[in-house]
């Protein structure tokens, strides 16, 4: 999996502050400088004033100003299972790699066993891995070896069958029906800062599935560079308050 920032609002926290100050100013925010708009906010420097205001907004649940900045992320190689969870967030905009128009006829089915084209979950190989709703974590090395063979045989056979169907003239949109839900897909998605925090509330939580949790953690790392005051505070103070933000 790989996550990249494609495009984002420049100076997002300045925009957040402008939106917030608009709510409590008699003057029109478009007619005054940013320094004038922030004049009554606590802090000695502009940076300190922004920090004061953004922390105040987050502490008091005033999330509207966080809807103004947007970011667009490109995500490479997540499973269709992960995509199904992610696209439930209907206030996020998505473009998803099409398996109707893109065929995977040049992938060596043998390479699928090592994670080419299909995501291999940790539980297929790791005897110490304990997932949600697993009946027990006490699994013998012999049983893990067996399930690794079963899993990797199944995905290799599925990809080989898919390619055989393409060779027999079946259209990709129909041949794809035999592929596993772990088949990798590329996604482009856009969301505002408030929605990003909501997604993180749900998908970076301890009980989220490992794949979408890892993806969300990567997004949060990028978000902390892009929007540092907001996401440093979110990661330190709000991250474990699950469902704190409504969509």
Could you characterize what this model shows?
The structure is a single chain. The chain is an alpha+beta fold. 43% of the residues lie in helices and 12% in strands. It has helices spanning 12-22, 34-37, 46-59, 80-86, 141-167, 172-175, 193-203, 210-226, 228-238; strands at residues 2-8, 70-79, 93-96, 184-192. Helix 1 crosses helix 3 (46-59).
Q: How many helices?
A: 9
Number of strands: 4
Order of strands across the main sheet: 1-2-4-3
Helix content: 40-55%
SS class: alpha+beta
Radius of gyration: 23 Å
Query: Can you tell me the overall shape?
Result: elongated
As residue ranges, the low-confidence spans are: none
Chain-averaged pLDDT: 92
Strand content: 5-15%
Distance between the termini: 26 Å
Largest sheet: 4 strands, antiparallel
Keywords:
single chain; 247 residues; alpha+beta; four-stranded antiparallel beta sheet; 9 helices; 4 strands; 43% helix; elongated
Topology record:
Blueprint: E1 2-8, H1 12-22, H2 34-37, H3 46-59, E2 70-79, H4 80-86, E3 93-96, H5 141-167, H6 172-175, E4 184-192, H7 193-203, H8 210-226, H9 228-238
Antiparallel strand pairs: 1-2, 2-4, 3-4
Helix pairs in contact: 1-3, 3-9, 7-8, 8-9
Concise account of the structure shown:
The chain has 247 residues and is an alpha+beta fold. The chain has helices spanning 12-22, 34-37, 46-59, 80-86, 141-167, 172-175, 193-203, 210-226, 228-238, and strands at 2-8, 70-79, 93-96, 184-192. The radius of gyration is 23 Å and the shape is elongated.
